[in-house]
Amino acid sequence: MAAGLLLEIRRGTQSALLVIREADPPSSPVDVSVAADRVEVKSGGSCEAVTLPPEVRLAPSSCRGLRRLPGDGLHLRMCLSCPPPGADLVSTWRESLKPQKNYVFYCQSCGDIIVKDRKLLRVLPLPSENWSALVEEWCCHPNPFARSTLHPQHGDCFLGETFFLINSGSESHVPEFPTCCSETGHHTSQSHSNLKSKENTRVVCKRCKTMLGETVSSDTIKYYVTEVIIQPSNGSFSPKPRSQFIQSMVAQCLVELSSAKSTFRFTLKGDNGKIFILIWLLNSDTLLVESSGSSSSHGVFTPFGDIFMPSSGPVRTWNAVKVLYQPCIKSRNKEFQVKRTHTTGGMRCLKRAD
User: Fold this and answer.
1) Which helix (H) or strand (E) holds 251?
2) For 203, which of 74, 140, 179, 346 is 20 to 30 Å away at the CA?
């Protein structure tokens, strides 16, 4: 039996859920032993012992609610014998950008340089997405901002919730500024015109053709935070696995938005406005540790769902947010599911970044 073990810890309640995941239903009884610093699983002639990180200590006498869920494995709840470490305060992408500093913009997918050595004179937050509608509600006279636009000037960087705006003029970049692409194959002349117009605003990486953002006006470009990495010019670029980076950015956005807007319900939309998935943020105080399981007798906990991390080395824990989601794609929305996703230096029961 090569069991994978997941320990999901809640800081607020100082409780933990131990999940022993099975590739196949065991053909012989399973013996689970829990110590303060160790979990051991025996089945048949095999034995797997996993040592917990030093900052995590369990209370074995509190174990309760052992049950087996088909397709998931054995679930066992317990308490912690001491409080888990607090979540590290990690600067978000919005906080990391400072005025009067030079930055390089990279394509997250391939690492190609999109904008080289851009000095940001001002870094300013944008109002919320529906700010104009709110002005209409509060003003007793016509909206004074109806004809104004919030476009960055040279050296400006405006920060939205999931994107940032920069001025596209007078900048050095390698290679040439990302070009736009358009595609064919639309069925009616009207849809062809509308979609082609939308496609012609797309900004793509010249190397890997990934969509990085879109042109907002002749001198303003909107970049998506999930597609572009911004690093100081005097720093070095360290690529991250795509899945790990997306987890981190989505988790950051969920936590920031839920805090700023006091909401826990979100949607993910395509660039055509179509909703693909509904998300409910369940909690943001989760700490995760996981062992992928092996045929050896000993293992260590590794980050949940991260196939790029080594199976040996220093033991680590991960901050995470836990979300409930429902796909809105045909034949995929018949039931709700709970997804664990991590943030690196942040949160997935999505991973947050550290």
Assistant:
1) helix 242-261
2) 346
Alpha carbon distance 172, 158 (integer Å): 19
Output helix, strand, coil percentages for the chain, rounded to the nearest 5: 10, 40, 45
Q: Is the pLDDT of residue 88 over 70?
A: no
Q: Is 172:117 a contact under the CB 8 Å cutoff?
A: yes
- For the chain, first and last CA: distance in Å? 33
Q: Please give the average per-residue pLDDT across 141-153, as a whole number.
A: 76
Element (H, E) at 40: strand 38-43
Q: How far is CA 246 from the centre of its chain?
A: 4
Q: Are strands 163-167 and 220-224 parallel, antiparallel or unpaired?
A: antiparallel
108: confidence class by pLDDT, cuts 50, 70, 90: very high
Q: Which two tokens stand for residue 143?
A: 């909206």
Looking at every residue in the chain, the average pLDDT score rounds to 76
Helical ranges in 36-105 per DSSP H: 93-96
Distances 50 to 68, 241, 297, 301, 354 between C-alpha atoms, Å: 20, 26, 9, 7, 24
Judge whether 119 and 172 are in contact, CB under 8 Å.
no
The dihedrals phi and psi of 62, each to the nearest 5 degrees, come to -90, 0
Taking 50 as the threshold, does the pLDDT of residue 340 lie above it? no
CA–CA distance, 46 with 271 (Å, rounded to integer): 51
The amino acid sitting at 180 is: C
For 35, the token pair is 């110590």
Taking only the tens place, the pLDDT of each residue in 264-273 is: 899 888 767 7
Residue 247 near residue 351, CB atoms below 8 Å: yes
Distance of CA 127 to the CA centre of its chain: 22
pLDDT tens digits for range 232-253:
998 778 888 888 888 888 888 8
- Classified as helix, coil or strand, 312 is coil
Beta bridge partners of residue 166, listed in sequence order: 157, 221
Q: Would you state the structure tokens that stand for residue 15, as one six-digit string? A: 């409780």
* pLDDT band at 17; cut points 50, 70, 90: very high
Which positions ≥6 away from 288 have C-beta within 8 Å?
6, 7, 8, 9, 303, 304, 317, 318, 319, 320, 340, 342, 348, 349, 351
